[in-house]
């Protein structure tokens, strides 16, 4: 089976939005308004400064995606690339899909001279934490705080 990782295109918006709905439910039992989410995904394509999506295809069928956004670091005079909204369809999990997407993002980040890759992971998601550690990522020493508006 062949696996291809490519930059997402507007034709992928429906899949990306549907996968984000599924991810929100699977990981946090949150229901997200699909119409709002589709507008949010489309906004990334409308404003490339927001980031970009990558899509993985196995034998020509889309099986996963992720979003990359940017965070400027004045300390390092460069961008951190944040990996977000990772989703792999159930039947393709544990088959190297995320690893392939991660490697594609890493290559693009190095070419763009980003200063590093970051991502969030649920504190209880031991499987994902193991995957990220296996790729050479390290748990950082920061806690995350937020104030929703």
UniProtKB/TrEMBL annotation:
Acyltransferase among keywords: yes
Residue ranges occupied by any N-acetyltransferase domain in the UniProt entry: 3-149
Keyword flag Manganese: no
Keywords from the named record: Acyltransferase, Transferase
Domain of life from the UniProt record: Bacteria
Protein name: GNAT family N-acetyltransferase
């Amino acid at each position: 089976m062949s696996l291809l990782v490519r930059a997402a295109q507007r034709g992928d918006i429906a899949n990306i939005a549907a996968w984000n709905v599924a991810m929100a439910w699977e990981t946090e039992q949150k229901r997200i308004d699909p119409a709002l989410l589709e507008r949010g995904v489309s906004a990334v394509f409308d404003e490339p400064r927001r980031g970009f999506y990558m899509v993985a295809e196995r034998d020509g069928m889309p099986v996963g995606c992720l979003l990359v956004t940017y965070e400027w670091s004045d300390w390092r005079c460069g961008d951190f690339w944040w990996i977000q909204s990772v989703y792999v369809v159930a039947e393709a999990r544990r088959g190297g899909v995320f690893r392939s997407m991660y490697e594609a993002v890493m290559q693009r980040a190095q070419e763009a001279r980003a200063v590093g890759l970051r991502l969030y992971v649920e504190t209880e998601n031991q499987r994902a934490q193991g995957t990220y550690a296996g790729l050479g990522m390290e748990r950082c020493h920061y806690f995350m705080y937020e104030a929703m508006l």
